[in-house]
Design a protein that fits this description.
The protein is an alpha/beta fold and 172 residues long. The protein is 31% helix and 13% strand. Bound molecules: guanosine-5'-diphosphate and magnesium ion. Guanosine-5'-diphosphate binds next to helix 1.
């Protein structure tokens, strides 16, 4: 099971997503703080919205196996810069919520997430549950543990520790 850290602006549906993935009944609950104890780390949207708080998000990422940027399909603007993955030392995925919204523009949000460097992009509707199985299956897969020597070898190849050496253009 991968521990996932969710970051994104307020109201995109991060907390509802955690409830839907756990099979809980959906109820509104303002996220007041970041709790790192469970299998999903939910964060208050205010962290992602303010430049001086957003640095704190990088710290929470160290508690997780994978970092997810969460954006709704009807998002009016993009909070995340291009190549965001380069300063997060975890795999980065994108989760698009509210794909059911009448104002949804999924291709645009996908493009933002691709520019941010997301490895995988999932589309979900937290209310009907559509798309949650695919995300849940991905989160259930464990990350393969590797030795310190192997981590150093991948680092020498210019790879992240979760990337297979076969994906390196450099051969040592
Ligand atoms: N239509 C629709 N509404 C959603 C979805 N996910 C969340 N919401 C609604 O969006 C609002 C904000 O959700 P919340 O989970 O509190 O957002 P957070 O601030 O990112 O944690 C709530 O009224 C949810 O019911 C979704 O996939 N589709
Ligand atoms: Mg919340």
């Amino acid at each position: 099971m991968k521990k996932v850290f969710l970051m994104g602006r307020s109201e995109v549906g991060k907390t509802t997503l955690t409830q839907a993935l756990k099979g809980e009944s959906l109820h509104y609950s303002k996220t007041q703080y970041t709790d790192v104890s469970g299998s999903m780390i939910d964060s208050p949207g205010e962290y992602a919205e303010a430049k001086h708080f957003s640095v704190g998000l990088a710290c929470f990422s160290f508690e997780a196996d994978v970092v997810a940027i969460v954006q709704s399909a009807d998002e009016p603007y993009n909070l995340f810069g291009a190549s965001l993955h380069t300063f997060i030392s975890r795999p980065l995925i994108g989760i698009i919520t509210k794909k059911d919204s009448p104002n949804a523009n999924v291709p645009m949000v996908r493009l933002w997430m691709e520019n941010a460097g997301c490895d995988r992009i999932f589309e979900v509707d937290n209310i009907s549950g559509e798309g949650l199985d695919e995300l849940s299956d991905y989160l259930k897969e464990d990350i393969e543990p590797i030795s310190m020597d192997e981590a150093k070898r991948r680092q020498r190849l210019g790879l992240n520790e979760w990337e297979k050496p076969s994906s390196s253009p450099v051969q040592l």
